[in-house]
Protein backbone atom coordinates (compact mmCIF):
# COMPACT_ATOMS: atom_id res chain seq x y z
CA UNK A 1 0.00 0.00 0.00
CA UNK A 2 1.46 3.32 -1.04
CA UNK A 3 2.11 6.07 1.44
CA UNK A 4 -0.67 8.19 0.00
CA UNK A 5 -3.21 5.36 0.16
CA UNK A 6 -2.08 4.53 3.68
CA UNK A 7 -3.30 7.91 4.84
CA UNK A 8 -6.76 7.28 3.42
CA UNK A 9 -9.43 6.78 6.01
CA UNK A 10 -11.70 3.75 5.97
CA UNK A 11 -14.54 5.92 4.75
CA UNK A 12 -12.46 7.20 1.82
CA UNK A 13 -11.31 3.70 0.92
CA UNK A 14 -14.81 2.29 0.94
CA UNK A 15 -16.12 5.26 -1.02
CA UNK A 16 -13.33 4.86 -3.60
CA UNK A 17 -14.05 1.16 -4.01
CA UNK A 18 -17.76 1.77 -4.28
CA UNK A 19 -17.06 4.58 -6.76
CA UNK A 20 -15.05 2.28 -9.04
CA UNK A 21 -17.73 -0.40 -8.88
CA UNK A 22 -20.40 2.22 -9.47
CA UNK A 23 -18.63 3.63 -12.52
CA UNK A 24 -18.26 0.15 -13.98
CA UNK A 25 -21.89 -0.70 -13.35
CA UNK A 26 -22.98 2.67 -14.72
CA UNK A 27 -20.94 2.16 -17.88
CA UNK A 28 -22.41 -1.29 -18.40
CA UNK A 29 -25.88 0.09 -17.75
CA UNK A 30 -25.39 2.89 -20.28
CA UNK A 31 -24.11 0.42 -22.87
CA UNK A 32 -27.07 -1.85 -22.19
CA UNK A 33 -29.44 1.07 -22.57
CA UNK A 34 -27.89 2.05 -25.91
CA UNK A 35 -27.93 -1.51 -27.24
CA UNK A 36 -31.47 -2.07 -26.01
CA UNK A 37 -32.59 1.12 -27.73
CA UNK A 38 -31.00 0.01 -31.00
CA UNK A 39 -32.52 -3.43 -30.68
CA UNK A 40 -35.91 -1.90 -30.14
CA UNK A 41 -35.43 0.40 -33.14
CA UNK A 42 -34.38 -2.48 -35.40
CA UNK A 43 -37.32 -4.53 -34.19
CA UNK A 44 -39.68 -1.64 -34.88
CA UNK A 45 -38.23 -1.31 -38.42
CA UNK A 46 -38.64 -5.01 -38.96
CA UNK A 47 -42.24 -4.96 -37.82
CA UNK A 48 -43.45 -1.62 -39.15
CA UNK A 49 -41.41 -1.17 -42.34
CA UNK A 50 -39.70 -4.26 -43.74
CA UNK A 51 -42.52 -6.64 -42.91
CA UNK A 52 -45.21 -4.50 -44.60
CA UNK A 53 -42.85 -4.02 -47.59
CA UNK A 54 -42.79 -7.76 -48.17
CA UNK A 55 -46.57 -7.84 -48.02
CA UNK A 56 -46.85 -4.93 -50.46
CA UNK A 57 -44.33 -6.55 -52.82
CA UNK A 58 -46.46 -9.66 -52.96
CA UNK A 59 -49.54 -7.47 -53.40
CA UNK A 60 -47.82 -5.76 -56.37
CA UNK A 61 -47.24 -9.14 -58.02
CA UNK A 62 -50.83 -10.20 -57.41
CA UNK A 63 -52.14 -6.94 -58.87
CA UNK A 64 -50.10 -7.42 -62.08
CA UNK A 65 -51.15 -11.07 -62.36
CA UNK A 66 -54.79 -10.00 -62.04
CA UNK A 67 -54.27 -7.51 -64.86
CA UNK A 68 -52.72 -10.17 -67.14
CA UNK A 69 -55.50 -12.62 -66.26
CA UNK A 70 -58.19 -10.02 -67.02
CA UNK A 71 -56.69 -9.18 -70.42
CA UNK A 72 -56.54 -12.86 -71.44
CA UNK A 73 -60.09 -13.51 -70.25
CA UNK A 74 -61.50 -10.52 -72.08
CA UNK A 75 -59.69 -11.60 -75.28
CA UNK A 76 -61.44 -14.97 -75.06
CA UNK A 77 -64.97 -13.82 -74.13
CA UNK A 78 -65.11 -10.17 -75.09
CA UNK A 79 -67.28 -9.83 -72.02
CA UNK A 80 -66.70 -6.48 -70.27
CA UNK A 81 -67.14 -8.18 -66.93
CA UNK A 82 -63.98 -10.14 -67.59
CA UNK A 83 -62.10 -6.81 -67.66
CA UNK A 84 -62.93 -6.24 -63.97
CA UNK A 85 -59.80 -8.06 -62.73
CA UNK A 86 -57.71 -5.94 -65.03
CA UNK A 87 -59.20 -2.70 -63.84
CA UNK A 88 -59.09 -3.73 -60.18
CA UNK A 89 -55.51 -4.93 -60.52
CA UNK A 90 -54.54 -1.62 -62.09
CA UNK A 91 -56.05 0.28 -59.15
CA UNK A 92 -54.39 -2.03 -56.63
CA UNK A 93 -51.08 -1.65 -58.45
CA UNK A 94 -51.16 2.10 -58.08
CA UNK A 95 -52.23 1.93 -54.41
CA UNK A 96 -49.56 -0.65 -53.65
CA UNK A 97 -46.90 1.41 -55.40
CA UNK A 98 -47.84 4.39 -53.24
CA UNK A 99 -47.61 2.29 -50.04
CA UNK A 100 -44.24 0.89 -51.09
CA UNK A 101 -42.89 4.39 -51.67
CA UNK A 102 -44.00 5.43 -48.17
CA UNK A 103 -42.39 2.38 -46.54
CA UNK A 104 -39.18 2.40 -48.60
CA UNK A 105 -38.06 5.94 -47.78
CA UNK A 106 -34.95 4.47 -46.07
CA UNK A 107 -34.32 1.96 -48.86
CA UNK A 108 -33.33 3.67 -52.17
CA UNK A 109 -32.72 0.32 -53.89
CA UNK A 110 -36.31 -0.72 -53.24
CA UNK A 111 -37.58 2.55 -54.69
CA UNK A 112 -35.40 2.03 -57.77
CA UNK A 113 -36.74 -1.49 -58.27
CA UNK A 114 -40.29 -0.19 -57.80
CA UNK A 115 -39.69 2.41 -60.51
CA UNK A 116 -38.49 -0.33 -62.88
CA UNK A 117 -41.59 -2.40 -62.12
CA UNK A 118 -43.85 0.57 -62.82
CA UNK A 119 -42.08 1.37 -66.07
CA UNK A 120 -42.23 -2.22 -67.32
CA UNK A 121 -45.86 -2.52 -66.22
CA UNK A 122 -46.75 0.69 -68.06
CA UNK A 123 -44.89 -0.54 -71.14
CA UNK A 124 -46.72 -3.88 -70.97
CA UNK A 125 -50.07 -2.18 -70.70
CA UNK A 126 -49.28 0.21 -73.53
CA UNK A 127 -47.90 -2.36 -75.93
CA UNK A 128 -49.86 -5.47 -74.98
CA UNK A 129 -52.85 -5.06 -72.72
CA UNK A 130 -54.43 -1.99 -74.22
CA UNK A 131 -54.06 -3.13 -77.89
CA UNK A 132 -55.58 -6.53 -77.01
CA UNK A 133 -58.52 -4.86 -75.25
CA UNK A 134 -59.09 -2.42 -78.11
CA UNK A 135 -58.79 -5.09 -80.83
CA UNK A 136 -61.14 -7.47 -79.01
CA UNK A 137 -63.67 -4.71 -78.52
CA UNK A 138 -63.60 -3.66 -82.22
CA UNK A 139 -62.64 -6.81 -84.15
CA UNK A 140 -63.70 -9.66 -81.97
CA UNK A 141 -62.10 -12.28 -79.86
CA UNK A 142 -60.17 -13.93 -82.64
CA UNK A 143 -58.37 -10.75 -83.51
CA UNK A 144 -57.69 -10.07 -79.87
CA UNK A 145 -56.32 -13.53 -79.20
CA UNK A 146 -54.10 -13.20 -82.23
CA UNK A 147 -52.20 -10.42 -80.46
CA UNK A 148 -51.39 -12.65 -77.46
CA UNK A 149 -48.18 -14.15 -78.72
CA UNK A 150 -45.01 -15.47 -77.16
CA UNK A 151 -43.54 -11.98 -77.45
CA UNK A 152 -46.33 -10.49 -75.36
CA UNK A 153 -45.96 -13.32 -72.89
CA UNK A 154 -42.23 -12.58 -72.69
CA UNK A 155 -42.87 -8.94 -71.97
CA UNK A 156 -45.11 -9.84 -69.01
CA UNK A 157 -42.42 -12.19 -67.81
CA UNK A 158 -40.10 -9.19 -67.80
CA UNK A 159 -42.61 -7.38 -65.58
CA UNK A 160 -42.81 -10.42 -63.33
CA UNK A 161 -39.01 -10.55 -63.18
CA UNK A 162 -38.89 -6.91 -62.14
CA UNK A 163 -41.41 -7.65 -59.36
CA UNK A 164 -39.25 -10.60 -58.29
CA UNK A 165 -36.22 -8.30 -58.17
CA UNK A 166 -38.26 -5.87 -56.03
CA UNK A 167 -39.20 -8.67 -53.67
CA UNK A 168 -35.58 -9.82 -53.49
CA UNK A 169 -34.47 -6.31 -52.56
CA UNK A 170 -37.18 -6.14 -49.90
CA UNK A 171 -36.06 -9.53 -48.57
CA UNK A 172 -32.46 -8.31 -48.51
CA UNK A 173 -33.52 -5.30 -46.43
CA UNK A 174 -35.45 -7.60 -44.11
CA UNK A 175 -32.49 -9.90 -43.65
CA UNK A 176 -30.21 -6.95 -42.84
CA UNK A 177 -32.68 -5.65 -40.28
CA UNK A 178 -33.14 -9.11 -38.77
CA UNK A 179 -29.38 -9.49 -38.46
CA UNK A 180 -29.21 -6.13 -36.68
CA UNK A 181 -31.94 -7.27 -34.30
CA UNK A 182 -30.13 -10.51 -33.62
CA UNK A 183 -26.77 -8.77 -33.23
CA UNK A 184 -28.08 -6.17 -30.77
CA UNK A 185 -29.96 -8.86 -28.87
CA UNK A 186 -26.82 -10.95 -28.53
CA UNK A 187 -24.86 -7.86 -27.49
CA UNK A 188 -27.51 -7.11 -24.87
CA UNK A 189 -27.14 -10.60 -23.44
CA UNK A 190 -23.37 -10.18 -23.36
CA UNK A 191 -23.72 -6.89 -21.54
CA UNK A 192 -26.05 -8.48 -18.99
CA UNK A 193 -23.49 -11.21 -18.40
CA UNK A 194 -20.79 -8.57 -18.05
CA UNK A 195 -22.95 -6.69 -15.54
CA UNK A 196 -23.42 -9.86 -13.55
CA UNK A 197 -19.68 -10.50 -13.60
CA UNK A 198 -19.03 -6.92 -12.50
CA UNK A 199 -21.46 -7.33 -9.59
CA UNK A 200 -19.87 -10.65 -8.61
CA UNK A 201 -16.36 -9.25 -8.87
CA UNK A 202 -17.43 -6.16 -6.94
CA UNK A 203 -18.85 -8.34 -4.18
CA UNK A 204 -15.65 -10.36 -4.02
CA UNK A 205 -13.60 -7.17 -4.01
CA UNK A 206 -15.74 -5.73 -1.22
CA UNK A 207 -15.33 -8.89 0.85
CA UNK A 208 -11.58 -8.90 0.33
CA UNK A 209 -11.38 -5.20 1.11
CA UNK A 210 -13.55 -5.69 4.22
CA UNK A 211 -11.27 -8.49 5.36
CA UNK A 212 -8.13 -6.49 4.66
CA UNK A 213 -9.25 -3.09 5.89
CA UNK A 214 -11.63 -4.03 8.74
CA UNK A 215 -11.61 -7.64 9.88
CA UNK A 216 -7.87 -8.21 10.05
CA UNK A 217 -7.10 -4.97 11.94
CA UNK A 218 -10.02 -5.54 14.32
CA UNK A 219 -8.99 -9.15 14.91
CA UNK A 220 -5.44 -8.07 15.64
CA UNK A 221 -6.66 -5.31 17.95
CA UNK A 222 -9.04 -7.70 19.74
CA UNK A 223 -6.19 -10.15 20.25
CA UNK A 224 -4.06 -7.45 21.84
CA UNK A 225 -6.97 -6.36 24.03
CA UNK A 226 -7.44 -9.96 25.19
CA UNK A 227 -3.79 -10.04 26.17
CA UNK A 228 -4.47 -7.06 28.42
CA UNK A 229 -7.72 -8.56 29.73
CA UNK A 230 -5.89 -11.70 30.83
CA UNK A 231 -3.71 -9.54 33.06
CA UNK A 232 -0.80 -8.48 30.86
CA UNK A 233 -1.24 -4.77 31.50
CA UNK A 234 2.29 -4.10 30.24
CA UNK A 235 1.40 -5.31 26.73
CA UNK A 236 1.45 -2.33 24.36
CA UNK A 237 -1.53 -2.09 22.00
CA UNK A 238 -0.75 -0.97 18.45
CA UNK A 239 -3.50 -0.31 15.92
CA UNK A 240 -3.12 -1.34 12.26
CA UNK A 241 -4.99 -0.69 9.05
CA UNK A 242 -6.89 2.51 8.29
CA UNK A 243 -6.19 5.65 10.35
CA UNK A 244 -9.41 5.14 12.32
CA UNK A 245 -8.20 1.79 13.64
CA UNK A 246 -4.77 3.21 14.33
CA UNK A 247 -6.35 5.97 16.41
CA UNK A 248 -8.57 3.39 18.09
CA UNK A 249 -5.50 1.35 18.99
CA UNK A 250 -3.83 4.48 20.36
CA UNK A 251 -6.91 5.33 22.45
CA UNK A 252 -7.21 1.77 23.77
CA UNK A 253 -3.52 1.77 24.66
CA UNK A 254 -3.96 5.08 26.47
CA UNK A 255 -6.86 3.53 28.40
CA UNK A 256 -4.62 0.53 29.17
CA UNK A 257 -1.96 2.84 30.51
CA UNK A 258 -4.50 4.66 32.69
CA UNK A 259 -5.88 1.36 33.96
CA UNK A 260 -2.38 0.10 34.67
CA UNK A 261 -1.57 3.31 36.52
CA UNK A 262 -4.84 3.13 38.46
CA UNK A 263 -4.23 -0.51 39.32
CA UNK A 264 -0.76 0.36 40.52
CA UNK A 265 -2.23 3.11 42.67
CA UNK A 266 -4.96 0.79 43.92
CA UNK A 267 -2.41 -1.90 44.67
CA UNK A 268 -0.26 0.61 46.52
CA UNK A 269 -3.30 2.02 48.31
CA UNK A 270 -4.44 -1.48 49.26
CA UNK A 271 -1.03 -2.23 50.68
CA UNK A 272 -1.15 1.03 52.61
CA UNK A 273 -4.68 0.25 53.80
CA UNK A 274 -3.63 -3.22 54.89
CA UNK A 275 -0.70 -1.72 56.76
CA UNK A 276 -2.96 0.94 58.29
CA UNK A 277 -5.54 -1.71 59.21
CA UNK A 278 -2.82 -3.74 60.85
CA UNK A 279 -1.69 -0.71 62.79
CA UNK A 280 -5.29 0.19 63.66
CA UNK A 281 -5.94 -3.34 64.83
CA UNK A 282 -2.88 -3.18 67.01
CA UNK A 283 -3.94 0.22 68.33
CA UNK A 284 -7.48 -1.06 68.89
CA UNK A 285 -6.12 -3.97 70.87
CA UNK A 286 -3.91 -1.61 72.82
CA UNK A 287 -6.85 0.75 73.40
CA UNK A 288 -9.01 -2.16 74.51
CA UNK A 289 -6.37 -3.24 76.98
CA UNK A 290 -5.83 0.36 78.04
CA UNK A 291 -9.57 0.98 78.51
CA UNK A 292 -9.91 -2.24 80.43
CA UNK A 293 -6.97 -1.28 82.61
CA UNK A 294 -8.34 2.24 83.04
CA UNK A 295 -11.77 0.95 84.01
CA UNK A 296 -10.18 -1.47 86.42
CA UNK A 297 -8.00 1.29 87.77
CA UNK A 298 -10.96 3.67 88.11
CA UNK A 299 -12.99 1.02 89.88
CA UNK A 300 -10.18 -0.02 92.19
CA UNK A 301 -9.05 3.55 92.81
CA UNK A 302 -12.59 4.73 93.52
CA UNK A 303 -13.26 1.76 95.74
CA UNK A 304 -9.97 2.06 97.60
CA UNK A 305 -10.43 5.79 98.06
CA UNK A 306 -13.74 5.28 99.81
CA UNK A 307 -12.32 4.18 103.18
CA UNK A 308 -9.69 6.93 103.73
CA UNK A 309 -12.12 9.52 102.38
CA UNK A 310 -14.81 8.37 104.80
CA UNK A 311 -12.31 8.72 107.65
CA UNK A 312 -11.33 12.21 106.55
CA UNK A 313 -14.97 13.24 106.13
CA UNK A 314 -16.01 11.68 109.43
CA UNK A 315 -13.25 13.31 111.45
CA UNK A 316 -13.78 16.64 109.71
CA UNK A 317 -17.47 16.48 110.58
CA UNK A 318 -16.64 15.49 114.18
CA UNK A 319 -14.17 18.34 114.33
CA UNK A 320 -16.83 20.70 112.99
CA UNK A 321 -19.45 19.58 115.48
CA UNK A 322 -17.14 19.53 118.51
CA UNK A 323 -15.20 22.71 117.96
CA UNK A 324 -17.82 24.81 116.21
CA UNK A 325 -17.81 28.25 117.87
CA UNK A 326 -14.81 27.45 120.07
CA UNK A 327 -12.25 28.51 117.55
CA UNK A 328 -12.00 31.72 115.66
CA UNK A 329 -14.11 32.45 112.57
CA UNK A 330 -11.28 31.63 110.14
CA UNK A 331 -10.83 28.18 111.72
CA UNK A 332 -14.55 27.46 111.37
CA UNK A 333 -14.31 28.51 107.70
CA UNK A 334 -11.37 26.19 107.10
CA UNK A 335 -13.19 23.30 108.72
CA UNK A 336 -16.29 24.01 106.58
CA UNK A 337 -14.12 24.01 103.44
CA UNK A 338 -12.64 20.65 104.44
CA UNK A 339 -16.06 19.12 105.09
CA UNK A 340 -17.45 20.44 101.78
CA UNK A 341 -14.41 19.18 99.84
CA UNK A 342 -14.70 15.74 101.41
CA UNK A 343 -18.41 15.57 100.56
CA UNK A 344 -17.78 16.64 96.93
CA UNK A 345 -14.99 14.07 96.69
CA UNK A 346 -17.41 11.46 98.03
CA UNK A 347 -19.97 12.35 95.35
CA UNK A 348 -17.31 12.30 92.63
CA UNK A 349 -16.08 8.87 93.70
CA UNK A 350 -19.63 7.54 93.81
CA UNK A 351 -20.27 8.81 90.29
CA UNK A 352 -17.01 7.33 89.02
CA UNK A 353 -17.98 4.01 90.58
CA UNK A 354 -21.37 4.17 88.88
CA UNK A 355 -19.78 5.07 85.52
CA UNK A 356 -17.14 2.33 85.76
CA UNK A 357 -19.70 -0.32 86.74
CA UNK A 358 -21.64 0.28 83.49
CA UNK A 359 -20.45 -2.57 81.30
CA UNK A 360 -18.95 -4.55 84.13
CA UNK A 361 -21.96 -5.79 86.06
CA UNK A 362 -25.19 -6.89 84.36
CA UNK A 363 -28.43 -8.45 85.49
CA UNK A 364 -29.59 -9.42 82.00
CA UNK A 365 -32.21 -7.88 79.71
CA UNK A 366 -35.91 -8.17 80.44
CA UNK A 367 -39.07 -6.50 79.15
CA UNK A 368 -39.28 -3.20 81.04
CA UNK A 369 -42.51 -1.19 81.07
CA UNK A 370 -41.42 2.44 81.07
CA UNK A 371 -44.83 3.51 82.36
CA UNK A 372 -44.25 1.60 85.59
CA UNK A 373 -40.63 2.72 85.60
CA UNK A 374 -41.70 6.37 85.60
CA UNK A 375 -43.44 5.80 88.92
CA UNK A 376 -40.11 4.79 90.45
CA UNK A 377 -38.44 7.77 88.77
CA UNK A 378 -41.08 10.10 90.19
CA UNK A 379 -40.53 8.67 93.66
CA UNK A 380 -36.74 9.07 93.49
CA UNK A 381 -36.93 12.65 92.22
CA UNK A 382 -39.77 13.72 94.53
CA UNK A 383 -37.65 15.68 97.07
CA UNK A 384 -35.98 17.78 94.40
CA UNK A 385 -39.27 18.34 92.56
CA UNK A 386 -41.05 19.39 95.74
CA UNK A 387 -38.27 21.84 96.53
CA UNK A 388 -38.42 23.36 93.02
CA UNK A 389 -42.22 23.06 92.76
CA UNK A 390 -41.62 21.01 89.58
CA UNK A 391 -44.27 19.13 87.65
CA UNK A 392 -43.42 15.77 86.04
CA UNK A 393 -45.72 14.28 83.38
CA UNK A 394 -45.39 11.47 80.89
CA UNK A 395 -47.39 10.04 78.03
CA UNK A 396 -48.08 6.43 77.08
CA UNK A 397 -44.59 4.90 77.12
CA UNK A 398 -43.58 1.60 75.51
CA UNK A 399 -42.15 -1.64 76.80
CA UNK A 400 -38.39 -1.77 76.17
CA UNK A 401 -36.01 -4.69 76.24
CA UNK A 402 -33.29 -3.76 78.72
CA UNK A 403 -32.08 -3.67 82.32
CA UNK A 404 -34.57 -2.03 84.65
CA UNK A 405 -32.01 -0.53 87.09
CA UNK A 406 -30.04 1.08 84.27
CA UNK A 407 -33.15 2.46 82.56
CA UNK A 408 -34.32 3.83 85.92
CA UNK A 409 -30.97 5.53 86.45
CA UNK A 410 -31.18 6.89 82.88
CA UNK A 411 -34.57 8.53 83.41
CA UNK A 412 -33.69 9.73 86.93
CA UNK A 413 -30.64 11.54 85.55
CA UNK A 414 -32.67 13.18 82.77
CA UNK A 415 -35.51 14.28 85.07
CA UNK A 416 -33.10 15.50 87.74
CA UNK A 417 -31.19 17.61 85.23
CA UNK A 418 -34.44 19.10 83.93
CA UNK A 419 -35.44 20.07 87.48
CA UNK A 420 -32.00 21.42 88.35
CA UNK A 421 -31.43 23.63 85.30
CA UNK A 422 -34.59 25.68 85.68
CA UNK A 423 -35.23 29.32 85.02
CA UNK A 424 -35.55 31.66 88.02
CA UNK A 425 -39.10 32.24 89.19
CA UNK A 426 -40.47 29.69 86.69
CA UNK A 427 -41.87 26.42 88.00
CA UNK A 428 -40.14 23.56 86.15
CA UNK A 429 -42.26 21.33 83.91
CA UNK A 430 -40.81 18.05 82.71
CA UNK A 431 -42.56 15.83 80.19
CA UNK A 432 -41.47 12.38 78.97
CA UNK A 433 -42.98 11.08 75.71
CA UNK A 434 -42.31 8.37 73.13
CA UNK A 435 -43.07 7.64 69.51
CA UNK A 436 -42.23 4.75 67.18
CA UNK A 437 -39.90 5.68 64.31
CA UNK A 438 -39.14 2.73 62.06
CA UNK A 439 -37.89 -0.07 64.30
CA UNK A 440 -36.93 2.23 67.19
CA UNK A 441 -38.69 3.96 70.04
CA UNK A 442 -37.73 7.61 70.19
CA UNK A 443 -38.14 8.81 73.78
CA UNK A 444 -38.01 12.50 74.65
CA UNK A 445 -37.47 14.24 77.98
CA UNK A 446 -38.44 17.90 77.53
CA UNK A 447 -38.49 20.73 80.02
CA UNK A 448 -39.05 24.47 80.13
CA UNK A 449 -35.65 25.26 81.61
CA UNK A 450 -32.74 27.41 80.50
CA UNK A 451 -32.06 25.42 77.32
CA UNK A 452 -28.83 24.51 75.51
CA UNK A 453 -27.07 26.41 72.78
CA UNK A 454 -26.59 24.31 69.60
CA UNK A 455 -22.79 24.62 69.70
CA UNK A 456 -22.74 22.82 73.07
CA UNK A 457 -25.12 20.00 72.06
CA UNK A 458 -22.31 17.45 71.64
CA UNK A 459 -20.18 18.53 74.60
CA UNK A 460 -22.75 17.85 77.30
CA UNK A 461 -22.36 14.07 76.94
CA UNK A 462 -18.60 14.23 77.63
CA UNK A 463 -17.59 13.11 81.10
CA UNK A 464 -16.83 15.96 83.56
CA UNK A 465 -17.81 18.52 80.90
CA UNK A 466 -19.42 21.56 82.53
CA UNK A 467 -20.80 24.79 81.09
CA UNK A 468 -21.60 26.51 84.41
CA UNK A 469 -19.73 27.25 87.59
CA UNK A 470 -20.20 24.90 90.56
CA UNK A 471 -21.73 27.64 92.70
CA UNK A 472 -24.42 28.28 90.03
CA UNK A 473 -25.41 24.66 89.37
CA UNK A 474 -23.67 22.11 91.60
CA UNK A 475 -22.79 18.62 90.43
CA UNK A 476 -19.96 16.47 89.11
CA UNK A 477 -20.62 16.83 85.35
CA UNK A 478 -20.94 13.08 84.80
CA UNK A 479 -24.72 12.57 84.72
CA UNK A 480 -25.28 12.79 80.95
CA UNK A 481 -22.12 10.77 80.30
CA UNK A 482 -23.81 7.99 82.30
CA UNK A 483 -26.99 8.55 80.25
CA UNK A 484 -25.09 8.16 76.99
CA UNK A 485 -23.30 5.03 78.15
CA UNK A 486 -26.55 3.41 79.32
CA UNK A 487 -28.28 4.23 76.00
CA UNK A 488 -25.37 2.86 73.97
CA UNK A 489 -25.30 -0.25 76.15
CA UNK A 490 -28.90 -0.87 75.09
CA UNK A 491 -27.98 -0.44 71.40
CA UNK A 492 -29.38 3.06 71.04
CA UNK A 493 -28.23 6.63 70.60
CA UNK A 494 -28.88 9.93 72.37
CA UNK A 495 -28.85 13.53 71.18
CA UNK A 496 -30.11 17.01 71.96
CA UNK A 497 -32.93 18.46 69.86
CA UNK A 498 -31.77 22.03 69.30
CA UNK A 499 -34.91 23.07 67.41
CA UNK A 500 -37.32 23.18 70.34
CA UNK A 501 -38.65 26.72 70.92
CA UNK A 502 -38.27 26.60 74.71
CA UNK A 503 -36.23 24.70 77.24
CA UNK A 504 -34.33 21.51 76.48
CA UNK A 505 -35.39 18.31 74.70
CA UNK A 506 -33.07 15.34 75.08
CA UNK A 507 -34.05 12.45 72.85
CA UNK A 508 -32.76 8.90 72.84
CA UNK A 509 -33.69 6.00 70.58
CA UNK A 510 -33.87 2.38 71.71
CA UNK A 511 -34.70 -0.75 69.67
CA UNK A 512 -38.41 -1.56 69.61
CA UNK A 513 -39.85 -4.99 70.25
CA UNK A 514 -40.77 -6.89 67.06
CA UNK A 515 -44.44 -6.96 68.03
CA UNK A 516 -44.50 -3.16 68.29
CA UNK A 517 -42.94 -2.82 64.83
CA UNK A 518 -45.41 -5.29 63.32
CA UNK A 519 -48.38 -3.60 65.00
CA UNK A 520 -47.21 -0.19 63.82
CA UNK A 521 -46.76 -1.50 60.27
CA UNK A 522 -50.33 -2.78 60.18
CA UNK A 523 -51.72 0.46 61.62
CA UNK A 524 -49.69 2.88 59.50
CA UNK A 525 -47.00 3.42 62.17
CA UNK A 526 -48.87 5.88 64.43
CA UNK A 527 -46.98 7.70 67.12
CA UNK A 528 -47.20 6.09 70.51
CA UNK A 529 -47.74 9.37 72.24
CA UNK A 530 -50.35 11.95 71.29
CA UNK A 531 -48.92 15.42 70.87
CA UNK A 532 -49.62 17.94 73.60
CA UNK A 533 -47.59 20.72 75.25
CA UNK A 534 -45.17 19.59 77.93
CA UNK A 535 -46.74 19.61 81.31
CA UNK A 536 -50.34 20.03 80.13
CA UNK A 537 -52.82 17.27 80.97
CA UNK A 538 -54.10 15.37 77.94
CA UNK A 539 -55.03 11.83 76.99
CA UNK A 540 -54.73 9.08 79.57
CA UNK A 541 -53.91 10.55 82.93
CA UNK A 542 -51.70 8.78 85.38
CA UNK A 543 -50.55 10.00 88.83
CA UNK A 544 -46.95 10.96 89.39
CA UNK A 545 -44.85 10.57 92.50
CA UNK A 546 -45.69 14.04 93.74
CA UNK A 547 -49.38 13.80 93.10
CA UNK A 548 -49.42 15.86 89.92
CA UNK A 549 -51.10 14.62 86.77
CA UNK A 550 -48.98 13.38 83.83
CA UNK A 551 -50.40 13.11 80.34
CA UNK A 552 -49.89 13.90 76.69
CA UNK A 553 -46.74 14.08 74.65
CA UNK A 554 -44.38 16.70 73.44
CA UNK A 555 -45.56 18.27 70.23
CA UNK A 556 -42.03 19.11 69.19
CA UNK A 557 -40.54 15.64 69.12
CA UNK A 558 -39.64 15.06 65.52
CA UNK A 559 -36.01 16.16 65.20
CA UNK A 560 -33.45 13.39 64.72
CA UNK A 561 -29.69 13.68 65.21
CA UNK A 562 -27.25 13.48 62.32
CA UNK A 563 -26.24 9.96 61.43
CA UNK A 564 -22.61 10.49 62.35
CA UNK A 565 -23.57 11.72 65.83
CA UNK A 566 -25.52 8.61 66.69
CA UNK A 567 -23.64 6.28 68.95
CA UNK A 568 -23.89 2.61 68.07
CA UNK A 569 -21.55 0.84 70.45
CA UNK A 570 -23.12 -0.46 73.62
CA UNK A 571 -21.84 -0.22 77.11
CA UNK A 572 -22.98 -1.82 80.29
CA UNK A 573 -24.41 -0.21 83.36
CA UNK A 574 -25.44 -0.97 86.93
CA UNK A 575 -27.56 0.92 89.42
CA UNK A 576 -25.49 2.49 92.15
CA UNK A 577 -28.24 1.69 94.59
CA UNK A 578 -29.05 5.37 95.15
CA UNK A 579 -31.34 7.44 92.92
CA UNK A 580 -29.25 10.45 91.90
CA UNK A 581 -31.24 13.64 91.60
CA UNK A 582 -30.30 17.09 90.53
CA UNK A 583 -31.15 19.93 92.82
CA UNK A 584 -32.00 23.51 92.18
CA UNK A 585 -29.90 26.28 93.56
CA UNK A 586 -27.27 25.51 96.18
CA UNK A 587 -28.91 23.94 99.16
CA UNK A 588 -31.67 22.23 97.13
CA UNK A 589 -32.67 18.78 98.28
CA UNK A 590 -30.94 16.05 96.35
CA UNK A 591 -28.11 18.22 95.14
CA UNK A 592 -25.61 15.53 96.03
CA UNK A 593 -26.78 13.29 93.13
CA UNK A 594 -25.16 12.64 89.79
CA UNK A 595 -27.93 14.28 87.80
CA UNK A 596 -25.65 17.21 86.95
CA UNK A 597 -24.11 17.20 83.52
CA UNK A 598 -22.16 20.29 84.07
CA UNK A 599 -22.99 21.28 80.51
CA UNK A 600 -26.67 20.58 80.46
CA UNK A 601 -27.82 24.11 79.72
CA UNK A 602 -26.68 27.04 77.69
CA UNK A 603 -23.46 28.80 78.57
CA UNK A 604 -23.68 32.10 80.36
CA UNK A 605 -21.57 34.92 78.98
UniProtKB/TrEMBL annotation:
Residues 580-598 have a biased composition (Gly residues). Keywords: Coiled coil, Kinase, Membrane, Phosphoprotein, Transferase, Transmembrane, Transmembrane helix, Two-component regulatory system. It is an enzyme of class 2 (transferase). InterPro entries: CHASE3, HAMP_dom, HATPase_C_sf, HATPase_dom, His_kinase_dom, HisK_dim/P_dom, HisK_dim/P_sf, Sensor_kinase/Photoreceptor. The chain crosses the membrane at residues 187-210. Residues 252-297 form a coiled coil. Residues 525-538 have a biased composition (Low complexity). SUPFAM superfamilies: ATPase domain of HSP90 chaperone/DNA topoisomerase II/histidine kinase (SSF55874), Homodimeric domain of signal transducing histidine kinase (SSF47384). It catalyses: ATP + protein L-histidine = ADP + protein N-phospho-L-histidine. It comes from the Bacteria. Residues 212-264 form the HAMP domain. Its EC number is 2.7.13.3. PANTHER family: PAC DOMAIN-CONTAINING PROTEIN, PHYTOCHROME-LIKE PROTEIN CPH1. This is histidine kinase. It comes from Micromonospora zingiberis.
Amino acid sequence: MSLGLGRWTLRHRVLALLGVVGVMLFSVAVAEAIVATKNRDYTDVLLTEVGPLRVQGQEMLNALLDQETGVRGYAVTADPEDLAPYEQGLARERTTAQEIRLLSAKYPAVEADLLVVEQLADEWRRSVAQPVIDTTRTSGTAAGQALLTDETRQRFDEVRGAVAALQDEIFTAREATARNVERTGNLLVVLLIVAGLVVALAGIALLLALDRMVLRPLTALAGQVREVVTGDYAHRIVGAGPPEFQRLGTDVDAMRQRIAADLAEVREARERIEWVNTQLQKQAEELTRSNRDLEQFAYVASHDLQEPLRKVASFCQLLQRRYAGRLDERADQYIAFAVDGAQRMQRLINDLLAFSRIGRLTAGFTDVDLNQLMGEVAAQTEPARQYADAELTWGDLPVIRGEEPLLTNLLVNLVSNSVKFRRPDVAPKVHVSARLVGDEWEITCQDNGIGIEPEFADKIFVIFQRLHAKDAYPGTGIGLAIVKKIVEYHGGRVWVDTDVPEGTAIRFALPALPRDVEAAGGAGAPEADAASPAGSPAGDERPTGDGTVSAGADADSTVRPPADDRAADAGTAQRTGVARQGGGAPGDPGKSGSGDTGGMKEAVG
